[in-house]
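Summary for the funding panel

The consortium committed to producing paired sequence-structure records for every protein in the target list. Below we show the first two records in order, beginning with the earlier of the two.
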Amino acid sequence: MKTVLVLNGPNLNLLGTREPAVYGSETLADVERICAEAAQSLGLRAECRQTNYEGQLIDWIHEAGRACAQGELIGVVLNAGALTHTSIALHDAIKGAAVPVIEYHISNVHAREAFRHHSWISPVARGVMAGFGVAGYGLAVSALAGMVSGK
């Protein structure tokens, strides 16, 4: 069974308690459940990971590129958190690994502070989704599966 990798970056381990007016009351465990259910409905398996470290995300993206090339992985749903707006290294990792990525944000970053309006990930992502809350992770998994399969 092929896998979709869901990567969450800095501070997403605080979901449910961090700024609930912005991010909602759902937790990272809820995100993982939503992703697992969406993947299962598509005949896939979801593997979810979270880290507060940029280098760890880069290593996982490199790993994902290899798994994708071997036909084990369809791609990545990536919520890089604030690293979206600062990390050229994540941009380069995605580009270099040649892995299909959906950039996802729980909140509508374009309705927030100006520094959140620029993404270093968007130019190398297959798609960008924002503002659907935690439930949007399931949409991102479905969108990735559709893009990769051509449906």
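The next record, for a separate protein in the list, is shown here:
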Amino acid sequence: MICMEVDNLSEVPKGMIGFTIPPHRYAKVKSEGDPYQVIHNYLDANGQQSDRRALALEIYYFENPSWPDKAEVLLPLQ
């Protein structure tokens, strides 16, 4: 699914859906290696856990949508 952040969902174009992601605290990483491994290693080392029931986010930028080194991964925390 490809998403774009908007200010409101009052007018959703035909063929698209609108949804809201509930607020969470997130751990964020940008890495040349596997960002999920990096972030899980960090959380484990610091006694934290991700919230597996919440939505993880991957942010790519239009000017350089390269995986994994240019993407940001946000993992919701418990």
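Regarding this second record: The chain has one helix and three strands. The radius of gyration is 15 Å.
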